[in-house]
């Protein structure tokens, strides 16, 4: 059977000195995390505040902000990022992006409904609840129904929207819901924020740039939104991330995929913060591309004719969503066979992953997972790195009696 060599699953990881031992090919065994790391609401709260909120996370693709830019003074995309309602606005005149918590300063009403996009006809934002209005730079402009008496006046400058940091890189729009103190003084948007994103994610940016160049000289900005898909899962977000970071389960969970890859050639390579899963594939495989994971919640699945942005969206201690955005260079209403095959294969593999991840979560919640097992040095060094970061965050912020 003819085979071709391709990148399989790659994980772009922030460099850490503790990770470099794995890069050197260490075979030291590491135990997995205890069950409570995936089930205890206290650890989920720590995840949101100290792992997810300060990290760069993908919100959307720029093409969704550009679609209606000729229909109004500004456009928006709103969604939820790791439990944080988020809205990004783009000025049609200047192209400037701003990101905010999608929360009105009055009584926490939504500025726009979650999981929507469209035009800002007022060149700003208006709360859906009581109609408070804000400019694109987040300043409070109007408070209808307050009257004109002196008693009704207050300093509006103290009630601007709560900002997030936003960065644009190669058409991908990222936000930091809780900008970390380490980046204090860096602008929340524009060139400074974009440069900060690149510095924080050097390996990720470099790898995707090279992948785009090798795919016929394309750039990520050449791809445009075709359609989205959402899958709801009954599992902790870390269960799904760890499943994504290893191919150890391919022979047992993915029979179709297993027929298209040569597992005898499967290997995990870790270098300078980048994890790439490499294997040979059959000549007719849909998996002719690069699979990239960026800490903590983004996967980019690169097929021959296009790619999908896979947002891993935590929604609770034992629930999450996978939100796909499928992108193609020339998206059309009627896709070709290769594009259809890529989407169909993505759906098949996702459903198989959902089944096993939900089964794992059920058993973690049962109380019968009494002690964690060892991770495979060959297949799970990406998982080991991820768990190492999780363990550090949990033990730094958990109460002494909850640490592990």
Verbal overview:
- With 404 residues, the protein is α+β, with helices and mostly antiparallel strands.
- The protein is built from 11 helices and 18 strands.
- The chain has helices at 20-23, 36-39, 41-52, 63-66, 191-200, 202-214, 237-244, 250-253, 255-260, 337-365, 381-397, and strands spanning 3-12, 57-61, 74-81, 84-91, 97-101, 116-119, 124-126, 133-135, 140-142, 163-169, 172-176, 224-233, 261-271, 274-282, 291-294, 298-302, 306-316, 319-328.
- Strand 4 (84-91) and strand 5 (97-101) form a beta hairpin.
- Helix 3 (41-52) packs across helix 11 (381-397).
- The N and C termini lie far apart (48 Å).
Features:
404 residues; alpha+beta; eight-stranded mixed β-sheet; seven-stranded antiparallel β-sheet; globular
Q: Over the alpha carbons, how many angstroms does the gyration radius reach?
A: 22 Å
Helix content: 25-40%
Summarize the helix and strand pattern as letters.
EHHHEHEEEEEEEEEHHEHHHEEEEEEHH
Q: Give the quaternary arrangement of the chains.
A: single chain
What overall geometry do the principal axes of the alpha carbons give? globular
Number of strands: 18
**Which regions are unreliable across 5 or more consecutive residues at pLDDT < 50?**
1-26
- Protein structure class: alpha+beta
Beta content: 25-35%
Count up the helices: 11
Strand order of the largest sheet: 12-18-17-16-15-1-14-13
Distance between the termini: 48 Å
- Biggest β-sheet strands, sense, barrel: 8 strands, mixed
Give the averaged pLDDT, no decimals.
88
């Amino acid at each position: 059977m003819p085979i071709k060599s391709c990148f399989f699953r790659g994980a772009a990881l922030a460099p850490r000195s503790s990770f470099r031992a794995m890069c050197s090919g260490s075979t030291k065994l590491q135990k997995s995390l205890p069950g409570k790391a995936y089930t205890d609401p206290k650890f989920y709260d720590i995840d949101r505040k100290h792992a997810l909120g300060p990290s760069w996370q993908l919100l959307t693709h720029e093409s969704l902000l550009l679609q209606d830019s000729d229909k109004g003074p500004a456009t928006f995309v709103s969604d939820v990022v790791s439990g944080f309602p988020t809205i990004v606005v783009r000025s049609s005149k200047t192209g400037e992006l701003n990101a905010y918590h999608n929360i009105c300063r009055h009584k926490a009403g939504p500025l726009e409904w979650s999981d929507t996009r469209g035009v800002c006809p007022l060149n700003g934002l208006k709360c859906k609840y009581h109609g408070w209005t804000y400019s694109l730079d987040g300043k409070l402009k109007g408070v209808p129904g307050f009257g004109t008496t002196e008693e009704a006046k207050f300093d509006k400058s103290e009630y601007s929207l709560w900002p997030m940091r936003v960065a644009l890189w190669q058409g991908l729009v990222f936000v930091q819901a809780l900008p970390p103190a380490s980046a204090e003084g860096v602008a929340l948007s524009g060139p400074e924020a974009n440069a900060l994103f690149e510095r924080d994610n050097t390996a990720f940016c470099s790898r995707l740039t090279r992948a785009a160049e090798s795919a016929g000289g394309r750039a990520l900005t050449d791809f445009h939104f075709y359609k989205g898909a959402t899958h709801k899962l009954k599992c902790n977000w870390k269960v799904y991330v760890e499943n994504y970071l290893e191919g150890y389960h391919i022979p047992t969970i993915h029979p179709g995929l297993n027929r298209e890859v040569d597992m005898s050639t499967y290997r995990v390579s870790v270098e300078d913060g980048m994890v790439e899963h490499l294997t040979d594939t059959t000549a007719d495989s849909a998996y002719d591309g690069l699979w990239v994971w960026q800490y903590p919640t983004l996967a980019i699945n690169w097929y021959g004719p296009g790619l999908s942005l896979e947002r891993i969206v935590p929604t609770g201690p034992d629930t999450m969503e996978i939100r796909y955005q499928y992108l193609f260079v020339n998206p059309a209403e009627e896709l070709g066979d290769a594009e259809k095959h890529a989407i169909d294969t993505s759906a098949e593999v996702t459903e198989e992953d959902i089944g096993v991840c939900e089964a794992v979560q059920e058993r973690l919640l049962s109380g019968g997972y009494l002690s964690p097992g060892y991770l495979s040095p060959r297949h799970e060094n990406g998982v080991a790195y991820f768990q190492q970061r999780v363990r550090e965050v949990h033990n730094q912020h958990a109460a002494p009696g909850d640490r592990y």
